[in-house]
Amino acid sequence: MSAKTIKTAIRKFNKFLITAHINPEGDSIGSQVAMASLLKKLGKSAIILNEGPVPYILQFMKGTEEIMKEMPASFDFEAAVILDCPDLSRVGNAAEHITKEKNIINIDHHVSNENFGKYNWVDTERSSAGEMVFELFKAFKLKLDYDDAVAIYVAMMTDTGSFKYSNTTSRTHSVTAELIDAGVRPYEIYGRIYETNSIQNTSLLGEALQTLKVSDDGKIAWLWVTREMLKKTKASLEGTEGIINFARSIESSDIAILFRETGTENRVKVSFRSKGNVDVNKLAASFGGGGHATASGCTVFGKIEEVEKKVLEKASGMLG
Ligand code: 5GP
Ligand code: MN
Description:
Bound molecules: guanosine-5'-monophosphate, manganese (II) ion
CATH architecture of the largest domain: Alpha-Beta Complex
Helix content: 25-40%
Structural class: alpha/beta
Order of helices and strands: HEHEEEEHHHHHEEHHEEHEEH
Number of helices: 11
């Protein structure tokens, strides 16, 4: 399916619920906000429902202030637009409102996407879900306002690691050229997202880097973020974003792993990154997670030492 199919689907309905994956980041928030604007420009009514709060660094985006945490009782939507989300279990508490009879429009770029919608547009060649919403603006011949352009730019910039990952293509740059023409100032957006670290979160990075290890062959590099470290530094979970890149940046590493103790005891959030020669989506999938070939994640139950052991075994097995 393509943007055209989604265009036809959107035309059929008037009341939309928009949601994305839990633990939202730049792409999920950016694509949702841009999508809401697109639907409103078409004269439709739309609300965004997300389980968690909007991360602090993304709150500057216009439209994020309207994101709801709970479903308004009177809002009987006809279709749900689900963005940047590989499967329905990742939707969070919005899922309870998305029953089978609701028309699901699934727009995503994850290779692990389960095509769970009535209308599915899954394109793993896209840098981000935001880039796909941009194409919908084009398909509807809608004018992109400054705020739409910012939201889409944030989605693209964050999912491409500032236009340096392997999902950065000439199309990515063509789209961002149009966003810049619509008024986006790259240095400003970069500053808002990447140069707004708190001292607490930066201290956490220091703690995490002390745990950096590499396997004997150098191919796996990993680090930890423990509850203890979070407590000591007073950093937020949001502050763990990006730490994994230090493991990936080790020259010899093919697989980078971050083990994070989440709030809940005996639950470890595991993130994977690769440089492209290992499919870490498969690795995450073997623990019930998913994502992309070069960036994926899962949650594993157990103590962090046990989880580390299990995951490292699987990872070295994959390297063969
Ligand atoms: P991160 O490591 O930044 O949390 O996530 C990297 C990528 O993996 C993202 O595309 C994210 O959607 C995906 N991902 C992370 N955790 C999970 C998970 O538990 N399940 C699935 N299916 N995907 C995940
Ligand atoms: Mn994405």
